[in-house]
Amino acid sequence: MSSTATVPPYLFEAPGTHDAPFTFAVPASLEVMPYTAHATFDGTGASGDFRPCLTFYGVDGVVLGRYFPANVVKQGDVQEVTYTPPFGTAAVSETPSGFTATYEVLTASPIALTATGIGIPSWVHSSGTSLLDLTTPTAPVPKVDGIYLAEFYVAISTPPVPPGFLAELLLGQSTIQAALVATWAGSGGSACANSVTAVDHFAVTDTFECVIFNYNSAGSETFTNLHLYVVRVA
Amino acid sequence: MSQQQSTMASLPLIYGYTAVFEAIDADSGAAVTGVTIIDPSVYGIDLSGTAGDDQLSGPFMLVPGPNT
């Protein structure tokens, strides 16, 4: 009588926390066929959103296959991932249902404008998820294509608004900027702040342009408390 | 913390091959820095049969004992 041959299991494991990328190297004399893999990806200190990948490389560093779940891990999030071959129930990959919304708050330093001057805020990330690429701080662009709701908020440093004062705020894509114009006309009242809200589809090639026009021909003004609130719905 | 599943190929990996847990940008494919990997593991089978001496790795013959 002949026995059924058994194939020994093999387990790579490295308990603890490691910087990504983390590599398991197949030891000499072994030929390992993976059946399942598991890891937790901690993006608390991530420089951006990312895909949690398990990649197999050949001897010369050639990519044999790269595997990741359907979703993208947001900067600051933590995700546990199990990788399994595509048979049985393992073929089912959990996908998010419904809409998800993420936000980012950006701020800019006060801008002093002379009479009839034009100013463009230079944005920096303040809180939330990093949705905008700030390579050019005066013209941030979405990192990911999507539907965005954005609000540009600005206040004048020395209220009340002087008589005859007029400011305009622009927020929008470079090609349809005019559709997203808001005006702010002072008449000597006590109002000292204004905002403009836009909802649109922004692609990675579009910029969020925020512009302040000081149409107060009577003198200079300082604009302060500059905020850009961005929400992405996907 | 959310849990996700991903499919992966079950292909033989030999000496010199690597399995790498990595974080990449969804658009550019570039590595994303600042990500940490916690308790990574890869479970499989050793096709070479040299992974452990305490494992049965037939085929072999079983000799019947005396019939008492």
Taking pLDDT < 50 over at least 5 consecutive residues as the criterion, the unreliable ranges of chain A are 1-5, 88-94, 176-181, 186-192
C-alpha-based Rg of chain B, rounded: 21 Å
Overall body shape of chain B: elongated
The biggest beta sheet of chain B, please?
Answer: none
Cα shape of chain A = elongated
In N-to-C order, the SSE pattern of chain A is EEEEEEEEEEEEEEEEEEE
The low-confidence runs of chain B, each spanning 5 or more residues with pLDDT under 50, are 51-58
Q: What Rg of chain A, in angstroms, do the CA atoms define? A: 26 Å
Provide the β-strand percentage band of chain B. 35-45%
State the secondary-structure class of chain A. mainly beta
Biggest sheet architecture of chain A: 6 strands, antiparallel
Strand content of chain A: over 45%
The helix/strand order of chain B is EEEE
* Distance between the first and last residues' Cα of chain A: 62 Å
* Count of discrete alpha- or pi-helical segments spanning 4 or more residues of chain B: 0
Helical proportion of chain B? Answer: under 10%
Number of helices of chain A: 0
Q: How much is the average pLDDT of chain A?
A: 76
Mean pLDDT of chain B: 78
How many beta-strand elements of chain B?
4
Largest interface: A-B, 87 and 58 residues
Describe the structure.
- The complex is a heterodimer of chains A (234) and B (68).
- In chain A, 0% of the residues lie in helices and 48% in strands.
- Chain A contains no helices and 19 strands.
- In chain A, strands 8, 9, 11, 14, 17 and 19 form a six-stranded antiparallel beta sheet that branches. A four-stranded antiparallel beta sheet of chain A has the order 10-18-15-16, with no helix packed on it. A two-stranded antiparallel sheet of chain A has the order 4-7.
- With 68 residues, chain B is mainly β.
- Chain B has no helices and four strands.
- Chain B is elongated.
- The chains are: A mainly beta (234), B mainly beta (68).
- The interface between A and B is large, with 87 and 58 residues.
